[in-house]
Automatic annotation (TrEMBL):
Name the record gives this protein: ATP-binding protein
Signal sequence, start to end: none
Entries under SUPFAM superfamilies matching the protein: P-loop containing nucleoside triphosphate hydrolases (SSF52540), Ribosomal protein S5 domain 2-like (SSF54211)
Span of domain Mg chelatase-related protein C-terminal: 405-496
Magnesium chelatase ChlI-like catalytic domain ranges (all copies): 200-397
Record-level Gene Ontology MF annotations: ATP binding; DNA binding
InterPro entries in the record: CHLI-like, MCM_dom, Mg_chelat-rel, Mg_chelat-rel_C, Mg_chelatse_chII-like_cat_dom, P-loop_NTPase, Ribosomal_Su5_D2-typ_SF, Ribsml_uS5_D2-typ_fold_subgr
Keywords: ATP-binding, Nucleotide-binding
Listed PANTHER family: COMPETENCE PROTEIN COMM, MAGNESIUM-CHELATASE SUBUNIT CHLI
Top-level taxon of the source organism: Bacteria
Alphabetical list of NCBIfam families matching this protein: YifB family Mg chelatase-like AAA ATPase
One Pfam family cited in the UniProt record for this chain: Mg_chelatase_C
């Protein structure tokens, strides 16, 4: 029996699969077992065609391919190449032990990429289960961004056969590609960003308070809600957030690329954080995750934007409480439980009332007090307690001017980011744990007195106090202050919901 190592996706993580083959006497047949889906069963015809068109005889034996372990459901066309190699080299003494092999075969024997290969290999590298991989050139180009892995690339089945039968394997070694983007180095680690501002804050007139809040949110990854009448610039501001966010580590860039591949998209490997903006009519399963990965999980390392927040169903809004608090989401399914990371920046926009004109200086509000109260009550106190910044955006005058560009904001974000990383933080301020808050959010005696008075007068919960401290820490970082001072705390308190 011969064995080739490969893998399959189990939800969002990879599981190693051993592709086993036996060739026995009996009526010629070709069988694949081991909970293989139709995409794998169809590989029998692709493998046969690839071998026959390249002048290889198909063995006149009873061929059984087993995908072990058998209790895991397998899917994907990338099992074509391992199966074809087992069949074509069944009489040769070949050692496949050192390699994981992936690739879809065309009918003429060319090897093609598939969307699942990149997330599978990335997951295996994180698990420490893979060192050498054999794939096609297109797959190699994508996975060349992954560190700590040796990549060999072949164009077709004949080259793959030559790779194992020949002695010069280094000629198939793929050269790693580097990230060609702007970067900063902090504590010996590279963080990447781009100076391409497709949407710029210079287009927003006025709204200085909202811009400062956006700067704080981007610098510390703080959750934020923007409230204002239609047309004041809420969505306009949010769409510019991804271009000023903190720089990204290689791990974050690869994680976003993995999520793109899981959506059957080509990864772009750009150091720009993604923004997910589901519509308020979306189902709970599409947001949280059901049979497929949800918007909450797809927003990891990026931004999750809820426009018209009160119009989302209460069940969806309340379902956000766990990922906003624990930065993870456990989704239970019939036969499995999947834990997703949810370290995203949550941003929401809402009107002040159902008609939207409550704060308008030019239009009259048509809502009565009961309608406004019902509208506001769609957001529960436990949910709002998980919001760091609550900003009211008023109408701007025609004389209002733009005062700052995205490039200037990004410069401040980078400085604040360096402050956080040089302190030895693993997470940005907005995602600090209780122990980390005690360690990094240091107050002097006068500032502590102000916080205690605020706690009593505003009836602040323990969670609210931690939110205030984390926002204060980011404001201090923007001013490059080592400790939180009174003015930083007072500014942080000004962003609490009233």
């Amino acid at each position: 029996m011969k064995i080739i190592k490969s893998a399959t996706l189990n939800e969002i993580e990879a599981k190693e699969v051993s592709v086993e083959a036996t060739f026995t006497k009996g009526l010629p047949s070709f069988t694949i077992v081991g909970l293989a889906t139709n995409s794998i069963q169809e590989s029998k015809d692709r493998v046969k065609s690839s071998l026959l068109t390249n002048e290889y005889k198909f063995p006149p034996k009873k061929i059984t391919i087993n995908l072990a372990p058998s209790e895991i459901k397998k899917a994907g066309s990338h099992f074509d190449l391992p199966i074809a190699l087992l069949v074509s080299l069944y009489e040769d003494k070949v050692n496949f032990d050192e390699y994981h092999i992936f690739g879809e075969l065309s009918l003429n024997g060319d090897i093609k990429d598939s969307y699942s290969i990149f997330p599978i290999i990335l997951s295996l590298v994180k698990q420490g289960k893979i060192k050498n991989v054999l794939v096609c050139e297109k797959s190699a180009k994508k996975i060349s961004k992954i560190p700590n892995i040796k990549i060999y690339s072949v164009r077709n089945l004949l080259e793959a056969i030559d790779f194992f039968k020949g002695k010069e394997k280094d000629k198939y070694l793929y050269k790693k590609e580097k990230f060609e983007y702007e970067k900063i180095n902090v504590n010996g680690k590279d963080f990447y960003f781009t100076n391409d501002y497709k949407l710029d804050f210079k287009d927003i007139r006025g709204q200085e308070n909202a811009k400062k809040a956006a700067l704080i949110a981007a610098s510390g990854n703080h959750n934020i809600i923007l409230e204002g009448s239609p047309g004041v610039g809420k969505s306009m501001l949010v769409k510019r957030l991804p271009f000023i966010m903190t720089p990204m580590s290689i791990d974050e860039i690869l994680e976003i690329a993995k999520l793109q591949a899981l959506q059957l998209k080509e990864p772009d490997f750009k150091p720009i954080r993604t923004i997910r903006s589901p519509h308020n009519t979306s189902t709970k399963a599409s947001i949280v995750g059901g049979t497929n990965i949800g918007e909450i999980s797809l927003a990891n390392s990026g931004i999750l934007f809820f426009d018209e927040l009160p119009h989302f169903s209460s069940s969806i809004i309340e379902a956000l409480r766990e990922p906003l608090e624990d930065y993870s989401l456990l989704v239970s399914r019939a036969n499995s439980k999947v834990l997703y990371e949810t370290k995203f920046l949550f941003v929401a926009a809402m009107n002040p009332c159902p008609c939207g004109n409550l704060l308008s200086v030019s239009n009259n509000c048509r809502c009565n007090e009961l309608e406004i109260k019902r509208y506001k009550n769609r957001l529960s106190e436990p949910f709002l307690d998980r919001i760091d910044l609550y900003v009211i955006m008023n109408d701007t005058s025609v004389d209002s001017k733009s005062t700052i560009t995205s490039q200037e904001i990004r410069r401040q974000v980078l400085n604040a980011f360096k402050m956080q990383m040089l302190r030895g933080q693993k997470n940005l301020n907005g995602k600090l744990s209780d122990d980390e808050i005690t360690k990094y959010c240091i107050l002097d005696s006068e500032t502590k007195e102000v916080l205690e008075k605020a706690r009593i007068n505003l009836n602040l919960s323990f969670r609210s106090i931690n939110k205030i401290l984390k926002v204060s820490r980011t404001i201090a970082d923007l001013e490059e202050c080592t400790n939180i001072q009174k003015r930083h705390l007072l500014e942080s308190l000004s962003y609490r919901r009233r």
